[in-house]
Amino acid sequence: MKKVIFFASLFLFAATLTSCTNDDDSSPDGCSQSDWIGTYSGTCNDVPYTLKVTEDGNQRLNLELILQNGSDTSANTFNGCNYSFVFGGISISATLDQDTIIYNDSTLECSPITFMRT
Question: pTM for the full model?
């Protein structure tokens, strides 16, 4: 009986260890701030665009859309794999799916744009 209890305890201990991971995900849908960070490329009407994502403090992202003639930046909190920014009638949203961001911008005629991590 002692052997059974010992092995059962050992099994539970091992199961507990394997369930503990160093996971910095801050959202139940699995995207942490570090998952977003990077440079992405996409096109809008055959014009290349770059989307640069950096951190802007705790639980905030800075999305910089780089165009041929300038750039546009929005900074806001994110909710896991989703980001949204609304200001003065301009609406920006983004969804992260591994190395792809689907980017919607109310000021762009070809929105949404699919960006791939570079």
Answer: 0.71
